[in-house]
Amino acid sequence: MTCSNTAASDRSAPFYWFLIFAAFFSLQVLPRLSQDSPAGDENVDIVDGFYYWQGDVISSAEHPPLAKALQALPSRAMGLQSKLGLNFTAYEVRDAYFLMVLNRRHFEAILKSARFVTYLFGLALGLVLFTWARQESIFFILTVLTLWAFEPIILAYSGFALAEIPLTFFFFTALVQHQKSIQKPSTLRAVMVGILSGMAVTVKFTAFLLAPVFLILEISVWLENSAGRSFVAVAQRWLWGGIAALLWVCLIYLPGTLAIPGHPWPWSLWMNGLHDLSNCFSFNSFYFRGILSHETHWDYYPTAFLLKSPLTFLILSIMGLFLVLLGKIKWPVWQWVPPVVFFAAFLFNYDLGLRMILPVYPFFILMAGRTGEWIANQNGEKNRVFILLWVGLLLFQVFSVGLRYPAYLSYFNEMVSQDKRIYWLGGPNLDIGQDTKRLALAARAHGWSHIKLAYAGSANPKIYGMDWSYWTQKDIQGPQPGWVYVINDDYLQVAPANSQVAALIGKSWITKRIPTGRIGDTWYYFEIPGKVLPDASTNVLSTNVFLDEIFADKIK
Fold it and tell me: Is 505 within 8 Å of 471 (Cβ atoms)?
C-alpha cells in the first residue's frame, strides 16, 4: 500500500517514461563495462561462477553462488579452456590462472559479459521501482526514476560483476511481493515470496535480514487491524514461503551435493558457507577518518551515507522525515522498516562500505520520491516556486552525479573536497582497483618506460600492456632520477595492514611530495626528472601486486 497526498492517476504512466530513464542509466553504465579494470573480488567471483556449473559450490563458500553463476553464464558459450593441468591449493590462485593465463585471449570478453548480467539486474531494479510507482502522480514517478537513474552507488555496482546489485534486486522484489501477499493473501504469492527470498540468500547471506523485516511487517499489520485476520492463514503463508525458500536453496547447492564425495546435504553446504563468513572478517582492518585499525565504528555507515549520497537525495530524505513527523506525508511501514533493520544490524558491525547496505536504497528512493511529490504539489496552480524548487533539486542530482562520470564508486557529494576524500573513507567507498586499466592506458600515452608501482589490487597492469618494476630500498630513501612512481588510494589507506613494505612506502617521501598528476580518480603519479641510473641492488621490495610472483613469466 502506498500513501500519497494526491489521488493516484486514473491510468498508468506510459512505459516510455521508464525507457527514457533506462537510457540515461545505460549511458552511464554500459561504457564502464569495458573501461573499468577488475575491481574487488570480480576475478574470483566470475571464475567461481564458471566452475559452479561443473559442480564446485564451495570455492569462496562464504559468498553463495547464485549471482556468480548467473554472471558467469555467458562465458560458458565462449569455448574457454577449463582443464588447468596444475594443482592449486587456493581457489584465488586457480581463478587468476584461469583468467590471466589459460584464457588470457578472452579475458576482456569474460569480464564484460559478466558485468552485462549485473547491468541487467540494475535495469530490472529500476523497472520494479517504476512498476510500483506508475499509478502515482507524475511528480512521484519522475522523482523516483531520477533518483534511481542518477544514484552513484547503484550506478557504480551495476557495472561490476559483484553480488550487491543482484542482492538488492531480489531483496527489494521479495519485499514488494510480500507486501502484495499481505494485501491479497494466496498460496501462489506466498510461494513467490519464498522463492525470491531464497534467491536473495543464495546471492549473499546478509539477505537473512529479510526474516526480521517480514516479522516486523506482519506484526505491524496485525496491530493495525487484527479483526478478520486469521493466525492460521498467516502461519500457512509463512509455511509455504519457508518451504519454497528451502527448496530453492537445495536446488542451488544441488550441483555440489552431486559432485562432492559423500554427497553432503545441500543445506549443510549453505550453512558451512555462513560459518565461513562469520570467521573470515576476524582479523580484518578497517579505514575510517584517517585511521587504519581493527576497530569498527558505530557512526561509520551513517557518516558514509551522509558524505557519499547526493545532496538532493539527502535533502529529500531528511526533509521527508520532518514531514512525516508533522503528519504532512506518510511513509508505508514496509518502506522504512528495511532501512532501520539494516542500519541497526550494521551499526556495530564491520566497516565494509556502503555496498553492505545497498539493498536499502530502493526504499530510500521511494521515501524521497514522496517528499519530491509533496514539494511539487504545494499551492497548486497559484505558486510555481515549489515546482521550480522540485525541478531544481532533480536537476542538481543529475548534474552532481552525471558530471562525475565514470567515477561513481569514488563519488562524494559537494560537502567533501577532493583532497579530503582520502581522509574520510577508503576501500569499497573509494578504491577497489577500478582505475588500473586507465593507469595502463595513461602510461602508454605518456610513453613511460620506467615505472615503479605500489599497488595491491586484483588486476595486474601487465594484463593491459604496462611494464613496471618493484621498489627497492633506494626508492624508500628517496625518488630515483628518470623513474615514474605510481600509487593508488587503496595502497596508501589499507595495504599497510597486511604488508610491511606498504607501511614503509606509506611513511616515505611519496606521501609528502606533491604528485605530478592524477589518473582516473584513484591513482597518483610522480615523474622524477633525470636519467635512469644503473642499479645493481638486489634488495627488491615486493609491493604486494596480486599474484605477480606466480605469473610474472606468463603475463606479457
Answer: yes
What is the Cα–Cα distance from 158 to 162, expressed in whole angstroms?
9
Question: Phi, psi (5° rounding) for residue 100?
Answer: -90, -15
Q: What region, left, alpha or beta, does residue 160 occupy, with left being phi > 0 and alpha being psi -120 to 50 degrees? A: beta
Sequence-distant (≥ 6) Cβ neighbours of residue 329 within 8 angstroms: 3, 5, 320, 323, 370, 371, 374
- Residue 143 in grid coordinates: 522523482
Phi/psi of residue 451, nearest 5 degrees: -125, 130
Rounded CA separation 67/133 (Å): 27
Query: Residue 370 corresponds to which cell in the numbers above?
Result: 514522496
Query: How far apart, in whole angstroms, are the C-alpha atoms of residue 60 and residue 285?
Result: 20
What pLDDT score was predicted for residue 538? 58
552 or 243: which carries more pLDDT confidence?
A: 243
pLDDT in the model for residue 184: 87
CA atoms of 550 and 96, how far apart (whole Å): 10
Mean pLDDT computed over every residue of the chain: 87
Q: Which of 209, 127, 222, 242 is nearest to 173 (CA)?
A: 127
Range in 77-81, 174-178, 213-217, 527-531 the model is least confident about: 77-81
Nearest-5° Cα angle at 20, 18 to 24 = 110
Which residues fall within 8 angstroms of residue 203, CB to CB, at 6 or more apart?
A: 64, 66, 67, 163, 166, 167, 170
- Round to whole Å and give the CA distance between 423 and 503: 17
Q: 42-52 and 107-133 are packed helices; what angle lies between their axes, rounded to 10 degrees?
A: 90
87-115 mean pLDDT: 85
Beta-carbon count within 10 A of 84 CB: 12
Alpha helices in 78-230 (DSSP H): 91-97, 107-133, 138-149, 152-157, 164-183, 187-201, 210-224
Radius of gyration from C-alpha coordinates of the chain: 25
Question: How far is it, in rounded angstroms, from Cα 295 to Cα 283?
Answer: 10
Give, for 541, the enclosing helix (H) or strand (E): strand 540-541
β-strand pairing of 286-288 with 484-488:
unpaired
What does the block give as the cell for 368? Answer: 524521497
Query: How many Cα neighbours within 13 Å face the side chain of 303?
Result: 19
- Whose grid coordinates read 577449463? 82
Summarize pLDDT for 263-294 with one digit per residue, the tens: 677 777 777 777 666 666 555 778 888 888 88
Contact indicator for 277, 227 with CB cutoff of 8 Å = no
End-to-end distance of the chain based on CA atoms, in angstroms? Answer: 58
How far apart are alpha carbons 225 and 310 in whole angstroms? 38
